[in-house]
TrEMBL record:
Belongs to the glycosyl hydrolase. One of its GO terms (molecular function) is alpha-galactosidase activity. InterPro entries: Aldolase_TIM, Alpga-gal_N_sf, Alpha-glycosidase_related, GH, Glyco_hydro_27/36_CS, Glyco_hydro_36, Glyco_hydro_36_C, Glyco_hydro_36_N. It comes from Isoptericola haloaureus. Keywords: Glycosidase, Hydrolase. This is Alpha-galactosidase.
Length: 744
């Protein structure tokens, strides 16, 4: 094969010197080896083919030039019977013109023509140790290509982040005279044969991130979100060696950083059986039509590899924590009034709740839904973001003064992208509702979606929220989104409106953040319906689920936590009886569950007993004491053989300290459970292990005793703790204990 000469330089934007772990360029022009934090990405770019990933996975070490060349030679498949005469490359945007018969990377047409692309690479640039939006990027490859037949220009960016996370996106520009309609732009990453089991997530409102595992078989396992939220769409599509777990087993995963419609898939092509993970935005028919010179940019597709899910997950956490906007201040313990009062906004009741919260050590008070004009229940008011005079004759000032007087910060709820038909806004501007033809979409929670692509609608919402944030001392906004986008047309054009709506919602959030830089934002979509890296670039927290039941939360947070680090996972202590499941849980279990996220309370503390209130105060104090570890450390989970038991924790970077939870989900077949392993510590350090208050209470079962080490602790090395473990007490189901592990 004749390799062309490509530009492979710093393009004047970066320092290529001093980069120890990248080969620039490869021994033959067109081969690159990008490395970071235990991950290798070997890319081949030929003039005739878009970037081809020859290896994505475990670090291959410092490959000498001839070995890199040999790797390429070794990767070329033989021609299979019944296939084109030359091997078909699986490029990052696979093209049918090269013989690829799986999902194409780009689809679209120009009035029916130009339906199949054939891009020719014109330039490749590679820079190292640069930044994007203030976050470090270890290596960035930019590939410019052109299809002069179809009159399209393409730019692909591939970045390796310092923590080993890879991300890629494409930008398609119409260079022709007529409109080009984009159907899809999906990035594809190859998987090795070893990836033969798929794990992704499904769910619903109140039960987000339910894992589902199955074999990798021929065809496409496609998960789509056609509702601009994803209670049921997968947050991560992963595939790995059969039986991969948290601590071991190679696994690869992709995620789309986009809050609109998405597609994520695992595909195995026939007859040659290549496996891949693909992802991109799901575009509705005709949603992106490019006039001459216009471009469509896909969202970033993030790709993480790990030996075990913990490692895969850690790369996401490392990236999120590397951004300048990542919440760096201690995550304030908060109270959210929703499940305490719902729509019953009574000043005396709300101030009494504030008093109880402040006495428990709470630092932020969030007034939820129900404060604005006409909002006495969920049938009216959305869109009219002024304080309701009937309920709040003096505005929110009396409450704001009371809350801040107690030393707490005030937070406020909005649902900016929504409108109730019963609102002044909807009555004045029915054309600002996302709708198609002469019909309205079916109502959901009595509401419709406000089409923010209408400048007037955007300005109306911006103006009203901006005014509230300017008038009151608000430090936190809970940004909700309680219905799906369906039949969502833009009235000005009659075209599908989800793509433009997603951009407009981002612009709204960005503009409000710029105008009120001290305000933190929480992404909520009826709980965890919007938890992607697109929204997380502009929010400090997600509301993980409307289900606060601690047992359900064990699974919901394990799944969501693969992507989102603990400090961004809203996790609340709810009432003794869960409002959404009817289960009753001890405060110790509710506290120990909320402890591992950004802790809040969502319970009418004024109705709690003195004993309960003082126990809540102990949990808040423990959270405040340990949040530095919990919110900066490395999350670990074990692959305990007993499905009744779950062990998870956070290990401080440097491994000097850790906190683990041992959770008894159901009754176990064995009691006591046997020795439980504590992973992720430094093998050569000796640790003191002891129960951590207030999560140290174990109710003795039927005459059972505590393990002998329980009262005085035990000293063991990290190697022994990970390899041999410690005996744990027998617990009732739906209980947990905390262990504090400190280096001696
Ligand atoms: C759905 C949210 O997830 C809840 O926490 C609450 O804010 C309600 N909306 C209010 O309508």
């Amino acid at each position: 094969m004749t390799m062309q000469t490509y530009l492979a330089d710093a393009a004047g934007t970066a320092d290529t010197a001093g980069t120890a772990d990248a080969t620039t360029p490869g021994p033959t022009d067109g081969l690159w080896h990008l490395r970071a934090a235990g991950v290798s990405l070997v890319l081949e770019v030929a003039r005739s083919a878009l970037p081809q990933i020859l290896h994505w996975g475990a670090d291959l070490g410092d490959l000498p030039a001839d070995e890199l060349d040999a790797l390429r030679a070794a990767a070329v498949p033989p021609v299979a019977s019944g296939t084109p005469d030359a091997p078909v490359p699986l490029t990052i945007l696979p093209e049918q013109s090269a013989g690829w018969l799986g999902t194409p990377g780009v689809t679209g047409h120009r009035d029916g023509a130009d339906f199949s692309t054939r891009f020719v690479v014109e330039q490749v640039r590679l820079v190292h140790d640069v930044e994007r939006d203030g976050a470090p990027v270890a290596h960035r490859m930019t590939v410019d290509a052109r299809d002069s037949e179809a009159d399209l220009a393409l730019r692909i960016e591939i970045e390796m982040l310092p923590g080993g996370l890879v991300r890629a996106r494409g930008r398609l520009r119409n260079t022709g005279a007529a409109v080009f309609t984009v159907g899809s732009l999906d990035l594809a990453l190859p998987l090795p044969r070893e990836a033969d089991e798929i794990l992704d997530f499904t769910g619903r409102h109140l039960r987000e991130r339910s894992p589902q595992r199955h074999d990798f078989v021929a065809g496409t396992h496609l998960r789509e979100s056609r509702r601009a939220r994803s209670h049921d769409g997968t947050l991560l599509m992963t595939a790995g060696r059969r039986g991969f777990g948290y601590r071991s087993g190679e696994v690869w995963g992709v995620h789309v950083a986009w809050s609109g419609n998405t597609r994520t898939f695992a595909e195995q092509g026939m007859p040659t059986g290549e496996r891949l993970l693909g992802a991109g935005e799901l575009l509705l028919a005709g949603e992106v039509r490019l006039s001459t010179g216009q471009a469509y940019e896909s969202p970033w597709v993030y790709a993480s590899y790990g030996d075990g899910l913990d490692e895969l997950s850690h790369r996401f956490h490392t990236y999120l924590r590397s951004r300048p906007q990542h919440p760096g201040t201690p995550r304030k313990a908060l109270v959210n009034v929703w499940e305490a009062v719902y729509f019953d906004h009574d000043l005396d009741r709300l101030t009494a709740l504030a008093d109880a919260a402040a006495a428990a050590g709470v630092e932020r008070y969030v007034l939820d839904d129900g404060w604005f004009r006409g909002r006495r229940d969920d049938t009216a008011g959305l869109g009219d973001w002024t304080v309701d005079d009937d309920v709040w004759p003096e505005g929110l000032h009396p409450l704001a003064d009371h809350v801040t007087g107690l030393g707490m910060e005030l937070g406020l709820w909005f649902e900016p992208e929504m409108v109730n038909p019963d609102s002044d806004l909807a009555r004045a501007h029915p054309e600002w509702i996302l709708q198609t033809g002469n019909r309205m979409p079916p109502e959901a929670r009595h509401q419709q979606v406000l089409d923010l692509a209408h400048t007037g609608a955007w300005e109306h919402v911006y103006g009203q929220i901006d005014a509230i944030l300017a008038e009151y001392p608000i430090g936190f906004v809970k940004w909700d989104h309680n219905r799906d986008l369906v039949d969502a047309g833009h009235t000005a054009t009659g075209g599908a409106g989800v793509h433009a709506q997603t951009h407009a919602a981002y612009r709204l959030l960005d503009a409000l953040r710029a105008a009120h830089p001290h305000v933190e934002f929480e992404s909520c979509a009826g709980g965890g319906g919007r938890a992607d890296l697109g929204i997380l670039e502009r929010t400090e927290r997600i509301w993980t689920s409307d289900c606060i039941d601690a047992l359900e939360r064990q699974t919901i947070e394990a799944g969501t936590g693969l992507l989102v680090p603990p400090e961004m996972l809203g996790s609340h202590i709810g009432s003794p009886t869960s409002h959404t499941t009817g289960r009753r849980h001890e405060l110790s279990f509710r506290g120990a569950t909320a402890f591992f996220g950004h802790l809040g309370i969502e319970w009418d503390l004024t109705a709690a007993s003195e004993a309960e209130r003082s126990e809540v105060a102990r949990w808040v104090a423990a959270y405040r004491q340990h949040r530095d570890l919990l919110h900066h450390g490395r999350s670990v989970r074990t692959d305990d053989p007993d499905p009744a038991l779950r062990v998870h924790g956070v290990v401080r970077e440097g491994a000097g300290e850790a906190i683990f939870a041992v959770v008894q989900l159901t009754t176990g077949v064995w009691a006591p459970p046997g020795r439980v392993r504590l992973p992720g510590l430094d093998p050569d350090t000796t640790y003191d292990v002891r129960p951590l208050a207030p999560g140290d209470v174990v109710e003795p079962g039927h005459g059972e005793a505590l393990p002998p080490w329980w009262s005085d602790g035990v000293r063991l090395s990290g190697r022994t703790l990970a390899g041999a473990g410690v005996q744990l007490p027998h617990q009732f189901p739906e209980r947990s204990v905390l262990l504090h592990v400190t280096a001696v």
